[in-house]
Write a structure and sequence with these properties.
18 strands, alpha+beta, 6 helices, 18-stranded mixed β-sheet, globular
């Protein structure tokens, strides 16, 4: 079978978040150990495996995501990369594509037609992760090297969200990743999101973020779609806008995520580009 490497939430190669995409043949799922070994071999933040479902199954594809270490509960960028791959393979019918996930339920996505032969934007419909303010966990300020102005839990998403004073603080952050990993395990958190408002309204984005999940094999994730399911409700409430918000994840491979909050759902919109196609031989 073929494997694609796709940069997600970007239109330029070698930016955004790289994901492996493996479209499996119809039938039973391969062994979990094999899925994990392939994801570890590719060594990208996430690898998505999509299995076609029969008619009447209530969804078009079953989807699972693996980091180099563990199976993930939810992944935005690898789902976007999968939709991009399905479009390139001619496997989209023109309407929405439905994914059955193990923890996120039914996920819907659709791809727009682009101009001048270019691929258009892709939008994902994911469950929102409302945030709840909590006391700053012990050790978080030391691990980050700065004390957050506020800290939140993100419910089923399982992250800690730390609000920093400004964009410059987010960009300058050099956290102690070993301490972040230990804190994440102690707090039973997937990882730590840091965020702040954009410094300038003319920047083209409304807020910035970064995401660290070293306990899951991802020291810093370049662009985290799932984290924006919590960032969207937080910034919608803070800015008084539910639609047309844009987040910049300010990693070394930055990317833009457009978000729109609709009740208990978040629409995540971005682009993707294929950088590698390979043939799996084992």
């Amino acid at each position: 079978m073929r494997i694609q490497i796709v940069d997600a939430f970007t239109s330029r190669p070698f930016t955004g978040n790289p994901a492996g995409v493996c479209l499996l043949p119809a039938g039973p799922w391969p062994d979990d150990a094999w899925l994990g070994q392939l994801a570890a071999e590719l060594n990208h933040p996430e690898t998505a495996f999509a299995l076609p479902l029969p008619a009447g199954a209530g969804a078009d594809w079953d989807i699972r995501w693996f980091t180099p270490l563990v199976e993930a509960n939810l992944c935005g960028h690898a789902t976007l990369a999968t939709v991009h791959t399905l479009r390139r393979e001619g496997l989209l019918t023109g309407g929405p594509v439905r994914f059955l996930s193990r923890s996120g339920g039914l996920l819907t996505a659709w791809a727009e037609d682009g101009e001048s032969g270019e691929d258009g934007e892709i939008t994902l419909d994911f469950p929102a992760a409302p945030v709840t303010e909590v006391a700053v966990p012990a050790g978080l300020a030391d691990a980050l090297g700065i004390r957050p102005g506020a800290t939140f839990r993100t419910g089923a998403l399982g992250d800690l969200l730390a609000v920093l004073p400004d964009e410059a603080a987010v960009r300058a952050l050099r956290p102690d990743l070993a301490a972040i990993a230990a804190l994440s395990l102690r707090e039973e958190a997937r990882g730590v999101i840091v965020t702040a408002a954009a410094d300038a309204v003319e920047s083209g984005y409304d807020f910035v973020s970064r995401f660290f999940a070293p306990a899951r094999g991802i020291p810093e994730d370049p662009v985290t779609g799932s984290a924006h399911t919590a960032l969207a409700p937080y910034w919608a409430a803070r800015l008084g806008r539910a639609d047309a918000l844009t987040g910049l994840q300010a990693s070394g491979r930055p990317g833009l995520v457009k978000v729109a909050l609709h009740g208990d759902r978040v629409l995540l919109t971005g682009r993707a580009v294929t950088v590698l196609e390979a043939t799996l031989r084992v």
